[in-house]
Amino acid sequence: MTVIENQATVACTQEELFDYCVDLRNELEWNPRAVSMEKLTDGPIGVGTKFLARWKGAPSAIEVTCLEFERPRRWVHDNGGPIAVTFTGVVEPAEGGSRLSVRFDARPRGWFRVLFPVFLVMARRQEKANMTHLRRALERGRSET
Questions:
Q1: What is d(CA 115, CA 82) in angstroms, rounded to the nearest whole number?
Q2: 57: DSSP letter
Q3: Is the pLDDT of residue 117 over 70?
Q4: Where are the alpha helices (DSSP H) in 2-111?
Q5: Please, what are the domains in the chain?
Q6: Distance (Å, whole) CA 121 – CA 128
Q7: What stretches of the chain adopt beta strand conformation (E)?
Q8: Angle, helices 14-22/112-143, rounded to nearest 10 degrees
Q9: Which of 24, 68, 122, 124 sits most deeply, having the most CB atoms within 10 A of its CB?
Q10: For position 108, what pLDDT does the model report?
Q11: Hey, how many other C-beta atoms are within 10 angstroms of the C-beta on 79?
């Protein structure tokens, strides 16, 4: 397992940050690699919620499931793609807003193990940039209301 960790402080409440991040459909606003995000299950987001996600460069759409949901503090999403990823988000109070800490646990499967070192270099860079993109998108949205 390979772990990528990042943090960002966002000028918003814990609830706003948590609700924005746990809904993968919002990723289309801040992740330039996100192509489509569809919620597959009915009802509010929580444990068991499923999304169908597609990112640039992925061979196909990947199902993502919410495994843990502790609003407004912590959630875990997991997928079973060619690189299985368990994504953990933690939201805590911070000076000036709320701090988002993310942990991206990646496990390559099958033939993708060969490409994994290249993927890892790109993923580290992208995940760090994504924290800035996410912060800007959420703060921009708050200033428009």
A1: 11
A2: T
A3: no
A4: 14-22, 27-30
A5: 2-143 (3.30.530.20)
A6: 11
A7: 2-10, 34-39, 50-55, 62-70, 74-79, 83-94, 97-108
A8: 140
A9: 24
A10: 77
A11: 16
